[in-house]
Input
Amino acid sequence: MNNGFVIAAIAMLIGTIPCGIVVWRGQLMSAVVAYQAISSIIVMVLALLAEGFGRSAEFEFPVLLAVLLLGSGLVFVRFLERWL
Amino acid sequence: MSARDVLADVLLGIAVAIVLASSIGILVMRGPYRKVHYVTPAALVAPLFVGLAILAQSGLTGNTAEMCLALIFLGIAGPFLSHATMRAIRIRETGDWRPWAGERRAASGAEQAQDEGGVGERADEGAARERS
Output
């Protein structure tokens, strides 16, 4: 186990707390912005944990989430424009 | 601890600092327009440092290649999502993303449009009226 990467992953997870507060308490579009930031942070956390625990197979998850981030985000935002 | 470990730790520290600062910015800033600006460092700059840290730690391996792939997708997604989010916010607020005529005058220094409240005529509508 590589401690530096795991500690960095935990520190980044702490960084999601302010964004979580905005998602929970903020207005709708502010919450969407915070959700996008959380998604990007989670991509890094997954990569850091895979490197930290030395599991190469789990590097698939950040790649997959990064791909889905674009599609899901655009669909979500598009619906929020007018219909939600 | 080798030089590679030190370099990786330094790069990770920078990435974590960027993420924490961006998160606090998203929490503190008022309004979604300002918050969007703080997503970009967390979505584009910090992953770059994480990728460099993985490169420094493990060299040119499959892990680094996959992180580069994730970086490419993040780099594509970030600007598109920021633009789409801004557009959605604008449409939810005013009903259309295009600037209206009074707003352009306000942007050039008058600032009276902010106090008028409602949505005025669109710039292209005003131009069409002027032509007729």
Observations:
- The longest helix of chain B spans residues 62-94.
- Chain B touches chain A through 51 residues (CB under 8 Å).
- The CA atoms of residues 41 and 130 of chain B lie 44 Å apart.
